Amino acid sequence: xxxxxxxxxxxxxxxxxxxxxxxxxxxxxxxxxxxxxxxxxxxxxxxxxxxxxxxxxxxxxxxxxxxxxxxxxxxxxxxxxxxxxxxxxxxxxxxxxxxxxxxxxxxxxxxxxxxxxxxxxxxxxxxxxxxxxxxxxxxxxxxxxxxxxxxxxxxxxxxxxxxxxxxxxxxxxxxxxxxxxxxxxxxxxxxxxxxxxxxxxxxxxxxxxxxxxxxxxxxxxxxxxxxxxxxxxxxxxxxxxxxxxxxxxxxxxxxxxxxxxxxxxxxxxxxxxxxxxxxxxxxxxxxxxxxxxxxxxxxxxxxxxxxxxxxxxxxxxxxxxxxxxxxxxxxxxxxxxxxxxxxxxxxxxxxxxxxxxxxxxxxxxxxxxxxxxxxxxxxxxxxxxxxxxxxxxxxxxxxxxxxxxxxxxxxxxxxxxxxxxxxxxxxxxxxxxxxxxxxxxxxxxxxxxxxxxxxxxxxxxxxxxxxxxxxxxxxxxxxxxxxxxxxxxxxxxxxxxxxxxxxxxxxxxxxxxxxxxxxxxxxxxxxxxxxxxxxxxxxxxxxxxxxxxxxxxxxxxxxxxxxxxxxxxxxxxxxxxxxxxxxxxxxxxxxxxxxxx
Amino acid sequence: xxxxxxxxxxxxxxxxxxxxxxxxxxxxxxxxxxxxxxxxxxxxxxxxxxxxxxxxxxxxxxxxxxxxxxxxxxxxxxxxxxxxxxxxxxxxxxxxxxxxxxxxxxxxxxxxxxxxxxxxxxxxxxxxxxxxxxxxxxxxxxxxxxxxxxxxxxxxxxxxxxx
Lengths: 597, 163
Hints:
The structure holds two protein chains of two kinds.
Chain A: E1 6-11, H1 14-18, H2 21-34, E2 41-46, E3 58-61, E4 65-67, H3 75-84, H4 110-113, H5 131-136, H6 141-149, H7 152-162, H8 174-183, E5 190-195, H9 204-211, H10 213-227, E6 231-236, H11 241-256, E7 272-277, H12 287-294, E8 318-322, H13 323-335, H14 337-341, E9 351-358, E10 364-369, H15 374-381, E11 391-396, E12 402-405, H16 415-420, E13 429-434, H17 439-453, H18 459-476, H19 484-498, H20 502-506, H21 509-517, H22 519-527, E14 542-544, H23 554-558, E15 564-565, E16 573-574, H24 584-588, E17 594-596
Helix pairs in contact in A: 6-10, 6-13, 7-8, 7-10, 9-10, 9-11, 10-13, 17-18, 18-19, 19-21
Chain B: H1 10-26, H2 33-44, H3 49-59, H4 63-72, E1 84-89, H5 92-96, H6 99-110, E2 123-128, E3 140-142, E4 145-147, H7 155-159
Parallel strand pairs in B: 1-2
Antiparallel strand pairs in B: 1-3, 3-4
Helix pairs in contact in B: 1-2, 2-3, 3-4
C-alpha cells in the first residue's frame, strides 16, 4: 500500500452535495494534480459527518482540521496554505456560535465532543463504496467471531444481555425477538431490514445506508446466523436512490469475498440478501404492511397475532429490525455485551442517533448515549436556538411522537422517560421549536401527514384522523368552538386504543401532547381568536402605527388587495375587511410602522 | 393509441421490447408485481392503461389487483408527467423554517398545484413529506438537483434554469 502524508476528506453526503461539495472535490482533484501533490496527499470522498448545517465539510488529516462551508474557490488556498505550508486557513475554521474563539480540530468541536458514535462509527470516515476500508476498520471480524467462536444461541444470549432494543421506535428487546423467531418451527425463515425511513425529519438510517452500508450487512448476517435465516430482504424507500446504489455495490462486494451468499467464510452457513425498493407509502414502515408490500400487495397492515416471528413474509417465520438496530449488532458481538451495556441507562442501553433539525444552530445527526438530557442535546451539541430566540419545546419521534415543552428540558432521553412525558423515541427525529412556532399549527401539520398516509383499512384511523384534522384546521382559521378541545381529546383516546396498527395508535400523540403542555395556545385560538406565536395567518391583524408612519405610500402600492389608503405624507390605514394578511406591507415598510398582532 | 393502418412508431416498438425484457427478467420471481410496475414506469414515464392490462395478463392477476396496487403507492402515476419534476419538501424541519411560503410562491411561478402538470409538460409539481436533507431546510428538489436554504425570492431564478 502506498503511503501518503495527508488525507483530505470531502463530505459527499446529501446535504453537502446540495451545498456544492462535488465542485469542491473536483477542485481538490484538479489542484492536487496540477501541483503534483496527488501522489502524497489522498483525496477521499466520504459520506455524511452529520454536521449538515455547516456543509460542505472538508477535514484534513493527520491533524483532523475541520473546515466548514468550503467553496471551490477556497481549495487553492487550503492546498497552498495548509497542505504545502502547514498553516490552517483560519477563516474557514468552524466558529462556535456561543464563543468567539476558533476550534480547529474535528474531535474537539462541541458538536462532536459530547457524541458517542457507535451506529455511526464509520459514517464520514470511510469510502462507503470500498469494502476494504470497512474491513480495515475492523469490519466483518464480528461476523467471523460469531460463526467460528459462538453458537447461534450464544449470539442471541449476548444480544439479550447487551440490552439492545429496537431503534425503529417500538423499543422491543432485539435479542428476545430473535429468540422468538429462532424457536418458531420451520426450515425457511426470512430476515428483513426495515429501511423505509419515512418519518419527516429523520435521516439517520439514510446516513448509515449511504455512509456505511457494510455495517448493516454484517449486522444482518450475524442475525441471520443466530436465527437460522437463509434469505433476507432490505426494504428501502425509493426516495433514497443513492442508498440503494451503495447497498447494491456493498452486497456484490461482500458476495465476492465470501461474506454473503453460499457457504459464508467456508462454513455451511449460507445467507442471500435482496433489496426491495419501496414505492412510496409511509404505512409500509409498519412491519406487517412492509411484508405485504414485499409480497407485491397493497401495503396494508394486518391484525397481530400471529406475529411475524410465527407467520411473517409468505407465511414463514420472519424477523424484522430497523437499520440502526442491525448496525449496532457487529459492535455488540465484537466488543461484548458488557461494553454495550455500560452506555445508557438501566433500561435503555447503548446510544441513539437523533436527527437534530428545526430552529437550532447546529442541525445534523448526533449520536449520544441514552439518558442524556434534552438540554444537553439542544444547547451543548446543538449550540442553542437560532437568532437567540426563546426555546419553546421539541418535537420528538416525528408524527408518532409528541412535543416536550421547555420546562421539561432536563428529561433524560430514553424509552421510558419519553413515553412518560407523552412523546416517544420513534425513529429519533428532534425538531426544535422557538417562540414563533404555533403548537396548534404544528399538530395540524402532523395530523395532515398521518391523515394523508392512513391506508384506510381501519375506521378509527381513516375517519378519526380526518375528523381531528377538520377540527384543528377550523381552530387555526379562527373558527374553533369551545367543545373542540374536549372532542379532540376524546377522539384521540379512542383512536389510540382502537386503531389497527402503530400508525393509527400513535397518530393522535402530537395533538394530545400539545394539548397537555400548550393548552393555553389552543384556548387563545378558540376563545380570543388570537395566535400567540403569530403564525396562523387567519388570526393575524395588521395595523399601522400612526406615530411612525410617514405617509410614503410604499405599503399602499405593495398591497395586492388595495386595503391600504391614506393621503400623501399623512398616516395610512389598513381596512381589515379587505386585508388578506399576506404580509407584503410589512416587507415594504422601511420605518417598521406596520404591526402584526 | 396508434391509428388503424398506421405502422407503429419505432419508439413504441422499442418500449414494447423493453417491457417484454422486463417480464422475462422477473418471470418466476415471487412478489414481482411492484418491481415490474416500477420498471414499466421507467420505460413509459407513467403507467398507461394498456400496459397495466398487459402486466395483469403476464402475472395472471386480475386487473383490479394491479390497479389497486398502483393507486396505493405514491410512486405510480396514471397520467403523463412533466419533463421536470419539482418536489417541494413540506416536512417538519422545512415547515418550521417557512416551507409553506416557498410552496405558495412556487405554485405562482409554475402555475399549477400539487400533483399537477403544466400543459406544455414542462413541469410537474409535487409535495413530499421529507427529502432527508433537513439541514438545508427549506428545500426544493428539481429532478436530481437539491436546492436548499431557499427564500421565496430565489425561486424564479431557479425555476428558469429548467426547460
